[in-house]
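ingest -> validate -> predict -> emit
validate: passed (alphabet ok, no gaps, 211 aa)
predict: started
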Amino acid sequence: MKVVAFNASPHPQGNTAHALRIVTDVLERNGIETETIHIGGQDIHPCMGCNGCARSRDGRCVLPDDGLNGWIEKIRQADGLLLGTPVHFSGMSGAMKCFLDRMTYVCGNSGGLLRHKVGAAVAAVRRSGGIPAVDGVNHYLTYSEMLLPASNYWNVIHGLRPGEVEGDEEGVQILQVLGENMAWLLKLVDYGRDAVPAPQPVRKKFTNFIR
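emit:
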């Protein structure tokens, strides 16, 4: 089994990276392979709403490739997805927003590539705004019918300078518990895949409020 983690901080070795590493260390101790990809320093195009992926349904964005299509392929082959963001103005980073807008739309229009994979979000923050940031990322995961592990508090850790999050004892424990629960859920899904039939996907109904 494998989990792909995405670091959407502009600082490749900042506190978001430390937060992800706390979780991935636990996953690896549980025998789960991990790979961390730094997208925070990438020039990620925003979604243009062109519906090209809805027409092609081939798992690729039609915009000039900025790395997204390769990342989607890694997600396709993985069992779990771990998303790490710093907190910018009480929300996720711009890189994470651009990444999620396009990735989620492409995957949803390509047979539900995220459906029933295990997904989790973590946020690193100096002071406040971590919970809205995690909640915002979770909107994409739940929309995609992903399975979300929990921890014993919200998945937020605090620090300013790189590495300071390691001093947030409660935050470290929160992410360690998240890692344990994520590993357990991944194993449950893998164990039950052949024993318990998954619900069949349904064709989404769209209802407009203004006609």
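The mean pLDDT is 96.
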